[in-house]
């Protein structure tokens, strides 16, 4: 093959110069046009390698000898590299943030010039306040496992170093509690850590995804006062959230009390919440930076449990909040004055015309055609988008740019330390109306 000098078993010396889109080290070797992927490596690492996999587009190597570079992070995790949850844990936080920023800017193309510095890396440590594990039963023994890069293999995690102690204690209790015959069909668990200082809301949530309907006999799960929900599973063996019907309360309060800055989020166990507490505070603060200073009314599409809507009403705004998530209704029983919540998909909801502000927080796949059509037809003055999927961001940011909107800024937020994942907040202003910037902020 032209431009290919390396083959299976070839040995060479290389220096890792960047991370690829998955967070693996990547290097180039003279005479071969294909990049060499070096798992569990950081930019600046060097040494001799053996090629262990080849394809027309990529090579994969393993170290024969390895000299860590200046951006290498000493790996405190005993489960790396088998666990694929923190693909770039070996990269120091500042170096990893620089790689995320570089890759995001490249992928945004012409809009990359609007990419600001963002919030910088979120701290590591026991940061994951939402965690998902699969339940594996080995005769009388319960194991909690996480998926690895090899989909057919699972890795047991007894003491994951990114999970806070209160959630680890729940797992220790659950190991014995799930032995109860009524809970034998539970296949995975979602854990959510909240605050113990919020009356009427639980300090922690436990979502039980099971292969059978809610049992009549309900043995204890978690600690007293936890919010426990039951989800009758669909056919997916790997999903934690796919059910045949909406989740139902098993015991305790229906919602966990999650604090983000001064905003209280009532969060059902199967409802979405960002996993890093400092990251979600940075996300909220960045969105609020682009909210006009003069309160009016807004549409929050894909509102979830109301991170943005609840914060806006505290600033004097009136908000229409829209989301069709099946696990959300309990969160909206705690409905503050100034919010009208509609349990509908944003793509089918009838949007009001020319709202002063629209906030859109779609899933990783993006808004989709119907949602985008509704957004453009409504002609909002200010739009703030939140994207956790870069492919969707590429498509939808350019769509706004090509349909009468000026990009004010694109801000990256770090919500997943140790990975290449980045959240993008972008702010847009309609350019055909003078009234769209009356507050003079931007």
Any idea what the shape is? globular
Q: Report the β-strand fraction as a percent range.
A: 25-35%
CATH architecture of the largest domain: 3-Layer(aba) Sandwich
Question: What is the top-level CATH class of the largest domain?
Answer: Alpha Beta
Q: Total number of β-strand segments?
A: 22
CATH 4th-level superfamily of the largest domain: Vaccinia Virus protein VP39
Number of helices: 6
CATH topology of the largest domain: Rossmann fold
What order do the strands of the largest sheet run in, or round the barrel if closed? 9-8-7-10-11-12-13
Class computed from helices, strands and strand pairing = alpha/beta
Estimate nothing, just give the exact number of structural domains.
Answer: 3
Average pLDDT level:
91
Computed Rg: 23 Å
Percentage of residues in helical conformation: 10-25%
Q: Major β-sheet, in short?
A: 7 strands, mixed
End-to-end CA span: 54 Å
Report the uncertain regions: 437-442
Task: Summarize the helix and strand pattern as letters.
Answer: EEEEEEHEEEHEEEEEEHEHEEEHEHEE
What does this protein look like?
The chain is an alpha/beta fold and 442 residues long. The chain has 3 domains: 11-63, Beta Barrel (OB fold (Dihydrolipoamide Acetyltransferase, E2P)), CATH 2.40.50; 98-122 and 276-437, Vaccinia Virus protein VP39 (Rossmann fold, 3-Layer(aba) Sandwich); 130-259, OB fold (Dihydrolipoamide Acetyltransferase, E2P) (Beta Barrel). The chain contains 6 helices and 22 strands. The chain has helices spanning 93-108, 165-177, 277-289, 307-314, 368-378, 390-401; strands spanning 11-15, 18-19, 25-29, 32-38, 46-54, 59-63, 130-138, 141-147, 154-156, 186-193, 204-210, 227-232, 248-251, 256-260, 263-267, 297-301, 318-322, 339-342, 357-360, 382-387, 405-413, 423-430. The longest helix has 16 residues, at 93-108. It is globular and about 65 Å long.
